[in-house]
Amino acid sequence: MKSKMSMRSRHIWEGYSFVGLWIIGFFLFMAIPLGRSLYFSFQDLKTSREGLIAEYVGLLHYRAAFTVDVNFLPLLRDTMKTMVSHVPLILIFAMASALLLNRHARGRLLFRGIFFLPVIIASGSILKKLLEQGAAQLPIFMEYDLYSKLRLFIPGDVLVRLLEYSDSLTLVMWDSGVQTLIFLAGLQTISPQLYEAAKCDGATKWESFWKITFPMILPMIFVNTLFTMVSSFTKADNHIMNHIRTVVFGNNNYGYGSAIGWIYFIIIFFLLGIVFLLFRKSLASMEGRG
């Protein structure tokens, strides 16, 4: 007699089958290094001929991050500001690009490849070199002195913010390749019959987007929000990551580097938890309707 699995149980098993390899890889390759870094964060490590000598110092490194290190908190603030400003821009640009690429037109496969190309090229050390050479900045704002020309019409504080966001458009386009593909995959799962029924009822394209498209791709928005936040916190030009790299490899201060790394991890985990709570109700309601 065949056992019948509910749709929820089937989805759970499918989910675990997808993440199973990652879980195995985590325990094989990442669990031990993470545990050692947590252990190091409570130790004062000194190098010797026999290796690292650990001396327990408790929460000394954690207190030093907030009371002694004059760079940590300002760099953390700048990192948070960059995340808050870039994540919405990336999501909006990725969704707009996906809506355009989802249309039936000639050469759409070519354009999809062009949008994803920066993910392959502009990553890691290559992206870092491009940023050092100023490739991520648009020269039009400096060449034509747009600040002086627009200052007559827009308040200075507002204009500075607008120009900063405009100057980061290159980075937004570079960082939206994966999100665009995820949105595109979500759009292609929506049945065209829903749009036909809405059109017969007199709904406009704007109404169809908010009543059909947006609710249907809400899980993709959730995934892209998490992915974009994690990517923003770990990208090549991240201030905190560079600070940790300097502390560990430049100053050979492994204990303090581990401590600020765990502080950074806890902050990221807390912010991701807030995103989970914000999307939880909407996703649960959609699952109940499914």
Topology:
Blueprint: H1 7-40, E1 43-48, E2 51-56, H2 60-67, H3 72-101, H4 108-121, H5 124-132, H6 140-143, H7 146-150, H8 156-167, H9 169-174, H10 177-187, H11 192-200, H12 205-216, H13 218-234, H14 239-250, H15 254-289
Antiparallel strand pairs: 1-2
Description:
This protein has a two-stranded antiparallel ribbon. It is globular, with a radius of gyration of 24 Å. The longest helix is centred in the C-terminal third of the chain and has 36 residues. With 290 residues, the protein is mainly α. Strand 1 and strand 2 form a beta hairpin. The protein is built from 15 helices and 2 strands.
Coarse morphology: globular
Distance between the termini: 27 Å
- Rg over C-alpha atoms, rounded to the nearest angstrom: 24 Å
Low-confidence stretches: none
Largest sheet data: 2 strands, antiparallel
Name the assembly state. Answer: single chain
Q: Which sequence of strands runs across the widest sheet?
A: 1-2
The number of E-state strands comes to: 2
Structural class: mainly alpha
| Mean pLDDT metric | 81
Question: What is the helix fraction of residues, given as a range?
Answer: over 70%
Query: Number of DSSP helices?
Result: 15
Q: What is the H-and-E element order?
A: HEEHHHHHHHHHHHHHH
> Strand-residue fraction?
under 5%
